[in-house]
Each structure stands twice: as structure tokens, then as C-alpha cells.
Design brief:
Length: 255
């Protein structure tokens, strides 16, 4: 089993910095179905699973099969990877949510609103965006609850799509301002959260939202526990690789 985990790409469209770089990264990924047809190509990373732990998009609203046109190239590449045999899982973030109506219903990709549990090589792994770890940020939690409420969804269904995408950008900025805090403080809160999950039997806790790449290992008797914050694709271009029963933080460096 080989899996990659990443978060906080914050895609806005092809005209923004970072879009081409992330498309380059997705182009380096392949599934075993492609390997069976074409063989192993140099510089490619063959995966069984790709897990995106929230905020792949800087904003998201969709209606049926209509999505923001600037996101179409990324969606098409993710769809191609599923056809190659890569199992893709999306955890919702504080910038992209209500993903299931499109990604699950239209594309058959697994979507997790709050977090996901995986079994990788016998390890019990918890993956979440992590934006609800800080329970003291009441203003942000209230905004998060409203944006995901039936009232907000009803309003979305009444608006023209072009206006809806403008509103999505506004809600994205509001969410960013209300959830902003020291990365060091947030990383420490997340670490304490992970310690509690280790007591509940998890072997690895993998979180996004912090934008600071960090991997810490904790010994618990004969088992090694792993805590990870995934970083981002704004500053760090970081992702987590699980291969040969080990987690390692990687940084994408295009040729």
C-alpha cells in the first residue's frame, strides 16, 4: 500500500499562482492501472490512495454538474486518477465543503464532512482538516455551522451561479479571517488533540489547516504513534507519503 496525503492547496483558478505547480504534481501521479498498460515511467509516483485533507479549493459551490470553470482541469485530472485505480478521498475543509453532491454523486469519489478513518498496513489512521480542534474559537465555529446549515444551502439554490461563486469567495475570506491564529499555537493544540486520539487507539493522526508541515513520533509501549500536520501548497508544497509501513513528509520539487 502506497498512499499520499495533502491539504490546503487553496486553488482559485488557472490564472492564480500555484495552479500550474499543483497540476504538475497531479501529472506526476499515476495508478497501477496505468502502470499495467504503459509500464513504469521515470519521475512518476504510483499510488494506491490519495487523501486530500481539506481546502483543496479556496472556495466551492456547485449545482448539479455545474462547477466553477477554473476548477475543471483539476477535477478532470482527479477523475483520470480514479480511472487508473487510485482511490481518492476528500475531507471537507473550512473553505471547501458540501462536496458530496458533486464529487460523490457525479464522480464516485469518497467525501468526508468531518474526518475519515483508514486502515493502512494494519495502522488505524485518523485524517481530518482540523479546523474544529480549537473549540475556543466560537465566532469561527458559529460561522462554520451557518455556512453548512440547511438555511445556507437553501439560499445557495436560489442564486445565479455567477453570483454564487462571488459569494463563495466572500465567505472564503471571512472564514480565513475568523480561523486565523498562530501556527505554533494551533500546532500545539493539534498535538494535544492527537495525544487524546492515541489513547483512543489510533496509530496516526493526520491534520491539515495549520499550514505548517510537522511530523512527530510518539512511543507508546511497543507501538509507534505518528502525528502530522500536512503544511500547505502556498509556501511549503508539502505532502505526506506512506510507503513501506512508514510516514515521511515530502516536498514537491518540479524539474
Amino acid at each position: 500500500m502506497k498512499a499520499a496525503f495533502l491539504s490546503d492547496v487553496h486553488l482559485k483558478g488557472p490564472e492564480y499562482p500555484g495552479h500550474a505547480k499543483f497540476m504538475n504534481f497531479l501529472g506526476r501521479l499515476q495508478g497501477k492501472g496505468r502502470v499495467a498498460q504503459s509500464g513504469i515511467a521515470a519521475g512518476m509516483l504510483t499510488l494506491d490512495r490519495l487523501v486530500i485533507a481539506g481546502d483543496l479549493f479556496d472556495f466551492w459551490f456547485a449545482r448539479g454538474d455545474a462547477i466553477y470553470p477554473g476548477f475543471q482541469p483539476v477535477v478532470e485530472r482527479l477523475t483520470a486518477l480514479t480511472h487508473e485505480g487510485v482511490r481518492i478521498s476528500l475531507c471537507e475543509g473550512n473553505h471547501d465543503f458540501s462536496l458530496a453532491s458533486y464529487f460523490s454523486c457525479q464522480l464516485g469519489i469518497d467525501v468526508y464532512p468531518d474526518g475519515a478513518e483508514f486502515n493502512e498496513g494494519g495502522l488505524r489512521v485518523l485524517v481530518s482538516h482540523g479546523d474544529t480542534v480549537d473549540r475556543g474559537n466560537l465566532k469561527y465555529l458559529a460561522l462554520r455551522g451557518f455556512l453548512r446549515s440547511p438555511v445556507a444551502r437553501c439560499l445557495q439554490n436560489q442564486l445565479p451561479l455567477t453570483f454564487l461563486w462571488r459569494l463563495a469567495r466572500l465567505s472564503s475570506r471571512m472564514s480565513k479571517e475568523m480561523s486565523r491564529e498562530s501556527q505554533e499555537r494551533l500546532a500545539e493544540l493539534m498535538y494535544r488533540f492527537a495525544l487524546g486520539k492515541f489513547k483512543d487507539g489510533y496509530d496516526a493522526v493526520i491534520l491539515g489547516h495549520c499550514h505548517k508541515p510537522l511530523l512527530r513520533e510518539v512511543s507508546n509501549g511497543s507501538r509507534r504513534k505518528t502525528f502530522v500536520t500536512l503544511g500547505d501548497w502556498i509556501t511549503h508544497d508539502s505532502y505526506l507519503l506512506y510507503d513501506e509501513a512508514r510516514f515521511t513528509l515530502q516536498r514537491f520539487a518540479p524539474e
